[in-house]
Amino acid sequence: MKVRVAQRKMFLAGKWVTRDQTITVTNPENNEAIATVPAATKEDMLEAVQAAKKGAVVSAKLPVFKRIEIIQRAADFIEEQQEDFAVTIALEGSKTIREARKEVARCIQTLRISAEEGRRLEGKTIPFDQSNGNENRLGYYSLFPIGIIGAITPFNDPLNLVAHKIGPAVASGNAIIVKPATVTPLSALKLAEAFSQAGLPDGILSVITGRGAEVGDTLVTHPDVRMISFTGGLETGTEIAKKAGLKKLSMELGSNSPVIVLNDANLNQAVDSTVSGAFWAAGQNCLGVQRIYVEKDVYEEFTAQFIEQTKAYRKGSKLFDSTDMGPLINEREAVRVESLIKEAVKQGATLACGGNREGAYLEPTVLTNVPPNATIAKEEIFGPVVLLFAVDSLQEAIERSNDVNYGLQAGIFTNHIQAAFEAIQSLDVGGVMVNDSSDFRIDSMPFGGVKGSGLGREGVKYAIQEMTEPKVVCFNL
Asked: What are the Aldehyde dehydrogenase domain coordinates in residue numbering (predicted)?
């Protein structure tokens, strides 16, 4: 499919602007150029911040019903153009068209939830007379927007993860500046178009396209930006935390997600769920299944079924409905993951299936007998690779699951309620999915992790909590 190279503008404080210097957006499937976007400069980001200072005042004064109307109209705009949004996601990123359609549907839902949560910016009364001498005092607290939010988003969910920043920010009366991933800016720009068409006042939203080294530090370090909401890798998140200074940080930093399969589990369900969870979006998914710990009595049967389904996984052109998995985001990433596989095999791991690379495509890969201290067992792979381990007990599975510097989500398959609760209590993660893989999320739940997996929680209601501050009011009567 030959795609015309489109010249896209970026959204600076409500205005669509071009720049002489541009960045070419390519389709990782074939390296074909599909669009150019402005290569923003430090001066562009400073202009966006200055405009956001005014936009934050406007946003804070917007009546709640206006915020709700704007967000709902943006959702309506996307709903009317669902296939166009899905094709954009598939062309610029790694997702197949089927995966992209699901992301568009989730984006619409994220915005609808944001509108609903805008109704619930509620405070509480405070019984000041609980303390002796304050019998004549009464009061309450209310939630107020913090001002300007800087959002930095990744390539793997280029629409819905941006919606998870913009929707709550608008609902809570803030201004927001989005720096989308350099390789996948088009979906974020289409989301900005939706909000522009919905009547969002100028200055409240900017989507600044450019390279992180050029504009990212300016956004992160600017004293008028009161919060950074970042989704990405641990290394980058650590650098942002060092540079940001005294401001709020909300970070989702990836994982190395474990799933436990016990002897009494429904193996068909466990295999179906974990294969999908391992290879969705070519494994470039912070919730993706990376390590599976299977009790020894069912290990051989589980492994045979898992490998059979993995071999049946169809990789190919992203725009074909028959394709199960597309390429990684670029060949460099595919080479990186391939090298991790080869390193593990050299250290004694068994390549059960997959492992072959062609350009940015990497076969769905299963490794067994992986040494516990191998890099691929300790770090986030972010590619279509899953590791299978046999364990003697639930206790061993929990201990090995916790033995990494990540803790986003985990899964356990069992029909034993006591075993499920033991895992819930003992797994050091932000969420435990029972009889589901780690790769399960709805957009309204509190989402985030512990240890190297991040700070704070997303999910619309919980993002709004991060983006607001309580203000106490007390009357002395």
From this structure: 16-473
* pLDDT tens-digit readout, 183-209: 999 999 999 999 999 999 999 999 999
Residues 237 and 221 in one domain: yes
Specify the pTM: 0.95
Do residues 246 and 300 share a domain?
Answer: no
Total residue length of the chain: 477
* Together in a domain, 289 and 370: yes
| Cα separation, 93 vs 87, whole angstroms | 10
Count of structural domains within the chain = 2
CATH code for the domain in which residue 184 is found: 3.40.605.10
Distance between CA atoms of residues 343 and 349, nearest Å: 9
C-alpha 165/C-alpha 189 separation (Å) is 14
Same domain, 180 and 308: no
Range of the domain at 357: 257-442
Is 252 catalytic? The answer is: yes
Set 29, 92, 193, 252: catalytic member: 252
How do residues 399-456 score in pLDDT, each as one tens digit? 999 999 999 999 999 999 999 999 999 999 999 999 999 999 999 999 999 999 999 9
Task: Report how far apart, in Å, the C-alpha atoms of 325 and of each of 80, 91, 291, 321, 390 are.
Answer: 26, 13, 20, 10, 27
User: Are 293 and 150 within one domain?
Assistant: no
Going by the DSSP 8-state scheme, the letter that residue 371 receives in this structure is -
In this prediction, residue 3 carries a pLDDT of 57
447 is a domain residue: no
Instruction: Give the residues of the chain that fall short of pLDDT 50.
Output: 1
Q: Could you tell me if residue 173 is inside a domain?
A: yes
Burial 318-334 (b: 16+ CB within 10 A, else e): bbeeebbbbbbbbbebb
Q: Select which of 99, 193, 286, 458 is catalytic.
A: 286
Distance CA 14, CA 106 (A): 25
pLDDT of residue 381: 96
Q: DSSP string spanning 323-361?
A: -SB---SSHHHHHHHHHHHHHHHHTT-EEEE---EETTE
Instruction: Report the alpha-carbon distance of residue 436 to residue 432 in Å, rounded.
Output: 9
